[in-house]
Amino acid sequence: MRQTNSFNEKRECPFCGKKDLKKPYWRHVQSEHPEEFSGNIEIWKQLYKDYRSAGMTEEISILAISELFNKSEEAVRDYLVKEKVLT
Questions:
Q1: Which of left, alpha, beta for 17 (phi over 0: left; psi -120 to 50: alpha)?
Q2: pLDDT digits over 19-73, tens only?
Q3: Which pLDDT band holds residue 8 (cuts at 50, 70, 90)?
Q4: Rounded distance, CA 4 to CA 68, Å?
Q5: What is the distance between the alpha carbons of residues 80 and 47, in angstroms, rounded to a whole number?
Q6: Three-class SS of residue 10?
Q7: Rounded distance between C-alpha atoms, residue 16 and residue 31, angstroms
Q8: Distance (Å, whole) CA 68 – CA 35
Q9: Which of 3, 6, 9, 27 fits a disulfide with 53 by CB distance 3.0 to 4.6 angstroms?
Q10: Which residues have a Cβ under 8 Å from the Cβ of 80 and sit 6 or more positions away?
Q11: Quick one: pLDDT at residue 64?
Q12: Strand locations in the chain (E)
């Protein structure tokens, strides 16, 4: 079975609909839609999944999200558990 590399996957911007964004597509969202990016914690779920698929550990992924959004690691972890991204 062929394994795909999700890091090369292209995405569509959830805010403006721009297509074929290459990873790290969060740079586009952060630079072009800063208010939506900083205020939308729903982004944390996909960002966590993307970091993990890129080979980052759980701890480093949570740390990166917490630093990016200026939130505590505990707040990020609690949200991901609540959303059933983490168990």
A1: left
A2: 888 777 778 888 898 887 777 788 899 889 989 999 999 999 999 999 988 899 9
A3: low
A4: 27
A5: 11
A6: strand
A7: 12
A8: 14
A9: 6
A10: 44, 45, 48, 62, 86
A11: 93
A12: 10-11, 21-22
Q: Could you state, in order of their start, the residue ranges of all structural domains in the chain?
A: 6-82
Tokens 């995405």, residue?
Answer: 11
User: What CA–CA distance (Å, rounded) separates 45 from 22?
Assistant: 18
Question: What is the model's pTM?
Answer: 0.67
Q: Is 72 left (phi over 0), alpha (psi -120 to 50) or beta?
A: beta
Instruction: Give the relative orientation of helices 73-82 and 43-53 as an angle to the nearest 10 degrees.
Output: 100
Beta bridge partners of 22: 10
How far from 77 is each of 2, 10, 27, 34, 42, CA to CA, in Å?
32, 27, 22, 23, 13
Calpha distance 11→18 (Å, rounded): 9
What is the token pair recorded at 61? Answer: 């992924």
Cα–Cα separations (whole angstroms), residue 23 to 36, 48, 51: 18, 13, 10
